[in-house]
DUF7344 domain-containing protein
Amino acid sequence: MGAAAAESSGDDEGPSRQEMFETISNERRRMVVHSLQRDGATDLRTLSRQVAAWENDTEPSAVSAQQRRRVYNALQQSHLPKMDDNAVVDYDHDRGTVEPTDSLEELTVFLEIVPEKEISWGTYYTLLGSVCLALCSAVALGVYPFVLFGMAPTALACSLLLLGSGLVHRYRSERLSLGTGDLPSEV
């Protein structure tokens, strides 16, 4: 673990919330996280070739020496030392190896930040539950025009809404998770 992380997070508690956000604030670092979660420990050369491939929308074997070198230098000089300091990876500069730490898994929680113009899934499900409860209550109490729908069709509609929402939520969560699938969520 890097010295800065040991100082800022107390004993050996892992990276702070700020360090986690700092780590995932950069697209290249998110690509590193994705690669390490997907493939595990690697060497800097292989990692830089993979990140360059994602950045250039090509296969690793088709990455030019210049593209790989540009990513290699940025990872070696900036990103990996920062990630090591934040205890997200173990980066051995001398050997050129990069290994995930236990803290790497915690980063997925920080990626579920709600975009600026959207509501959180928790708020969405609370609103959906409230609407379904109101509809079922209106039908049960005989409120016109809701009484015309009947309880069974209303309950079925609410169930289908919940199921559909759950499927969309699962799809979006898996798509945005680093370390799953072939490509990071940005690519």
